[in-house]
Amino acid sequence: MTNSSRFYFYEHQHKGEQYLNALEAAGFERVPPSEADFALLDHESGHFGMGFASELGYFAERRVPIFTYPHTARPGFVYDLHKHWPYTRAKFVHSPGFKEVLESLECPVPIEVVGWPYSEIKPFEKREPGKKLKVLFGPIHPNANGWLCPWYCETNTRMLQLLLNTPDIDLTIRYFHRLEEQGLWHCDKATYVQAEPDGSTKEIEEADVVIGAFTFAYLALAMGKPTIMIGELTRPHAGNKPWNVRWSLNWEKYFENTCFTYNGELYFDQPEKFRKILEQSLDPTDEVINWREKFIGRPFDAGLFIEKLKIHLEKEQQWPSSQKVIVSIWSTQRVPSTLSLGNMRVND
């Protein structure tokens, strides 16, 4: 076994915090890319899914093993924007359902389930129906540059309109960036909380029902909150400008598998029926419980992660025959050997 004790870590929001903590607690040392024995990234995609990330070529030329942790709690997204990078040593994921989706996409590398890293996993809370409900709405948020595709803006707009027309609720809106960038506006019927993508669960814990998209909705379910999703009926995609939107290639393979029980978009024009759906969601069905077990899974197991990592570091790896790895015409500029920890990729 080689002494692979130094690692480069790409930090995407709070998503990799538990992985980083586990590595440092096990005695591994975080270093710049040029000093790394292995790398842990959130995915292999280039900017907004266009080609592969330039650091893949940098590490492959130096025979540095690459591992990934999930960029998002949502299975399929990011990993279905192009063909798989074949030189990743292994992918770490949080749930059996996430692994199942990657397998349906014919992922050619080992996939290890090591548990849910974003929060506690709490028992489902049951609320007494018939009372005024505290509803938390987490809209689909814009990219870092403030752009959000028009169809997601429309989803946010129509969801807010539906909530404003739904009787007997106290509405809180938790949002990133500027309201107008995501199709929303200020109104007297709602309380607004401007937040950061830091994994905070404060507003989730205070709510009776959570309405949201993607990681935020998964987080609410992990916290035991009745949840209604949005955004699940649109084909997954990435992009921060109209001209660079890239769509998932194989959504049909996993859409039905990943689709959650309650979807707010089905009730945009039916506020009275939607109020009944809110009440119905308060008592989790077997379908909701089984979905959570499959796509949230069990709590993060730091020991299991380190154990699996060490096993994969022991293995021999087949590398590209050429020292010059041409990653993609879409890749960003090649990574210099003097690159520092923080500027390897724009946080998209």
Annotation field: number of helices:
10
What strand order characterises the main sheet? 2-1-3-4-5-6
**How many extended strands?**
13
The CATH level-2 architecture of the largest domain is identified as 3-Layer(aba) Sandwich
In the CATH hierarchy, the third-tier topology of the largest domain is known as: Rossmann fold
Shape: globular
The percentage of residues in β strands lies in 5-15%
Major β-sheet annotation: 6 strands, parallel
Query: Assembly state here?
Result: single chain
Structural class assignment: alpha/beta
At the first level of CATH, the class of the largest domain is Alpha Beta
Number of domain units: 2
Fraction of helical residues: 25-40%
Please give the alpha-carbon distance between the first and last residues. 36 Å
Give the integer mean of the pLDDT values.
86
What's this, in brief?
The protein is an alpha/beta fold and 348 residues long. It has 10 helices and 13 strands.
List the topology elements:
Blueprint: E1 6-9, H1 17-25, E2 29-30, E3 38-41, H2 54-61, E4 66-68, E5 88-93, H3 96-104, E6 111-113, E7 133-138, H4 150-164, E8 169-175, E9 190-194, H5 202-206, E10 209-212, H6 214-222, E11 227-229, E12 237-238, E13 246-247, H7 255-258, H8 271-281, H9 286-295, H10 302-314
Parallel strand pairs: 1-2, 1-3, 3-4, 4-5, 5-6, 7-8, 7-10, 8-9, 10-11
Antiparallel strand pairs: 12-13
